[in-house]
Amino acid sequence: MTVAVLGSGPVGQTAALLLARWGVPVVLVDEHEARDPVGSKAICQQRDTLDVWASLGAGCLAEEGLTWTIARTFHRARELFALELPDAGSALPPFVNLSQARVEAVLDELIARQPLIDVRRGHRITGLTQPGGVVVECETAGGPRRIEADYAIACTGAHGDAVRRAVGQHLEGVSFRDLFLICDIRADLPGWAAERRFHFDPPWNPGRQVLIHPCPGSQFRIDWQVPDDYDLAAEETGGALDRRIRAITGDRPYEVVWRSVYRFHTRLVRRMRVGRVLLAGDCAHLVAPFGARGLNSGVADAENAAWKLAWVLRGEAGEDLLESYHAERHAAAVENAAVTTATMDFLVPQDDERRARRLDVLTRAAADPAVHEQVDSGRLAEPFWYADSPLTTPDPARPCAGRPARGTLPPPGPGILLPDVTVASGRLRDLARQGFLALTTPGLTVTGVRSAEIPVGGVLGARPGEAWLVRPDAYVAAVLRVGDQRAHLVPGVRGVTRVVDDVGDRADAPE
Q1: Which residues does the UniProt record annotate as the domain FAD-binding (predicted)?
Q2: Is 351 exposed, middle or buried (0-12, 13-18, 19+ CB in 10 A)?
């Protein structure tokens, strides 16, 4: 029983490693013969992404990445506010900046040591069919090749048109007219190493925005919003690029390490599961990078897909479980599209009325902290909450209030990712990632799944006589109580539907 992972960027690498960890053989297919090690590309890795990688043995990524904890926002020459990121009680930083090339190199090292992963490079995908399994047609230097698998995860990125066409999908949405110039520079900028800086309408890029991210090795990633007729070659030749950079660095020496020009998009496929093919990452959804919701969301796609495919292939769940991948991750993509579209509407207002509103908000924010929430420079990446998932049993005592305030986390409950903390039984998410887990309060026993005891209160806010059922991706599926007679917990997952009866019939609640 094999899964073909199509595309070997960080999302595909993560999917392959997660599947192998669950004991599933993988064929990892990529069209490139070798990596391109140049350029920062996707640099901003969120805490929960780092957590997934650490669970695979890549904890060094959190250590190597440059940790930043403050996001500063400026309007013209004035700082409006600084947002300090919450620590959430985790040993991992809220965000690190690290080049995509370094992430890929570390994950490649893990893949090379994993006997269940068969890497096929230099395979350009030309077609895909599903005749009771998945057949992937490829062109290679040695001629056509065919790869057969039981299922596939398509991580072929924005340019994965061949796969999308084969499953009847395309990226629907909009592209933004303005361009963005990206430069990686190496320079000594004292005091900037732990801060992300966002500038609205600075004097040195009038009418547009600039974002500055620190990176390891005294490097900085700078994104300038530029007109749609921007000519990078002309700027380099005429010296304007040097003047643009020196407006930020001053007279300090600097070196341009990489530069490129991008147009940003908000585009989604309509279906992220088509038969035996699951679409993930940029193959399924493109969003503007403000808030770092691209790669981080793709890694969440990979983890969601991997455990569900593993359960199906091991006979522990029916194939209907895979439909919940679409339900959960497409909802996450829609949320990310809404958040980033609102950001782009604020960054690039499309008419005079919206431009006037933005100027009013930025002007008032300088003196009124109550207005800060209206300043949108990109809501930072966060996990998506599966409160409405078919795999989540709602708890009336812990209703999900939806998207939490910016910079905050929701209280634990059904549909919410477990806090990344240590309890008496070990690191909570490590316990969860071994399979379904029941976290029980003292005096309560549960049969049918693994269990570990948690204190009443504590980080979960657990109450006497409760058992918290946790999925293999560390999301809470349900909170159970003695006598609870709800009909289901995780539909289609064998062995887990018994837990309600076990709690109701066999557990003794403490007085």
Answers
A1: 2-334
A2: exposed
Q: How many CB atoms lie within 10 A of CB 413?
A: 22
d(CA 378, CA 72): 12
- Residue 76 main-chain phi, psi, to 5 deg: 55, -120
Answer whether 414's CB lies under 8 Å from 476's CB. yes
What local confidence, expressed as pLDDT, does residue 176 receive?
87
Q: Model's pTM, two decimal places?
A: 0.94
Q: What is the pLDDT of residue 509?
A: 36
Tell me what the mean pLDDT of segment 469-492 comes to.
80
Which residues of 78-201 form beta strands (DSSP E)? Answer: 78-84, 95-97, 117-120, 124-129, 134-140, 143-149, 151-154, 172-187, 195-200
3-state secondary structure 437-504: EEEECCCCCCCCCEEEECCCECCCCECCCEEEEECCCCEEEEEEECCCCCCCCCCCECCCCCHHHHHH
Average per-residue pLDDT for the chain: 91
Instruction: Find out whether 291 and 7 touch, Cβ atoms under 8 Å.
Output: no
Q: How far apart are CA 169 and CA 181, in angstroms?
A: 30
388-511 CATH fold: Glutaredoxin (3.40.30)
Burial class (CB in 10 A: 0-12, 13-18, 19+), 376: buried
Q: Where in the chain are the domains?
A: 388-511
Question: Residue 468 has which token pair?
Answer: 């918290």
pLDDT tens digits, 367-422: 999 999 999 999 889 999 999 999 999 998 898 877 787 777 889 999 999 998 77
Hey, which residues does 437 pair with through a beta bridge? 450, 470
Instruction: State residue 458's pLDDT score.
Output: 87
The pLDDT-based confidence of 508 (bands split at 50, 70, 90) is very low
Asked whether residue 485 carries a pLDDT value surpassing 80, the answer given is no
Per-residue confidence (pLDDT) for residue 170, from 0 to 100: 96
In degrees rounded to 5, what are phi and psi of residue 473?
Answer: -100, 15
What confidence tens digit (pLDDT) does each residue in 304-326 have? 999 999 999 999 999 999 999 99
Beta strands at 124-129 and 134-140: parallel, antiparallel or unpaired: antiparallel
pLDDT value of residue 137: 98
Q: Which of 238, 32, 61 is nearest to 141 (CA)?
A: 32
